[in-house]
Amino acid sequence: MRTVVFLLLLANLSLFAYIKLDTMGAGEAVRLSEQVQPDRIRILTPQQVAALGPEKVASMADVCLEWGPFSDAERTRALAELDSLQLGRLLSERRAGADTAWWVSLGPFATRAAGEKRAAELRQQGLTDVSVVDNGRGAFAVSLGVYRNEQNARARADSLAQQNVRGTHVEPRGQPAAQTLLVVRDPPQNVAARIKELQTQYAGTGVHVGSCATS
């Protein structure tokens, strides 16, 4: 009799253990199904990544921020301004051909103060992408945007004219020699924001974010 009771008890314990293990396995499967949801995964194209903007992209991985192009003199000055960010191996350089950029501007102004005054007036009108640029030889200009082609630059000038901003100039900003792009891999948010601020001080340069070049 004791043997039968012992066998029944052992059978019950074995059944309990089997049910418990099966429940735990099912629970793990449920947790995994909740964690992995393939239908919610999206692969972004380089264009979609670029559209996110520097601040959003800074939180992603394997993307690069490119700032430029720079002449040799501008490159030296830009690198000096990035020193305090301590980018180390995140920062690299890439040589680029001499693409012609087009910019829309007002001026010239004899002093930076005069340019800053006009820029402040434009910002009060609700304009963005406004900055004061030192053209050298004691002349300053108010930059109203830099564009990759003349058509877009002239469209900007026409739009400004409709807002009663007249007297704008549309000019090429290309240079004949090869230029340099500064590249930051996986830029932190503060770095992306700082480079965007610095970019307004370098007419003819732009900030572009996308997949890192494989070459």
- Strand elements, count: 8
Query: Helix amount, in percent?
Result: 40-55%
Query: What low-confidence regions span 5 or more consecutive residues with pLDDT below 50?
Result: 1-13, 15-43
Q: In the CATH classification, which architecture of the largest domain applies?
A: 2-Layer Sandwich
- Report the structural category: alpha+beta
Walk me through this protein's architecture:
With 215 residues, the protein is of the alpha+beta class. The protein folds into three domains: 38 residues; 90 residues, Alpha-Beta Plaits, CATH 3.30.70; 71 residues, Sporulation related repeat (Alpha-Beta Plaits, 2-Layer Sandwich). 43% of the residues lie in helices and 25% in strands. It has seven helices and eight strands, in the order H-H-H-E-H-E-E-H-E-E-H-E-E-H-E. The strands form two sheets. A four-stranded antiparallel β-sheet has the order 2-7-1-8. The longest helix is centred in the N-terminal third of the chain and has 34 residues. The chain is globular. The N and C termini lie far apart (81 Å). The N terminus is likely disordered.
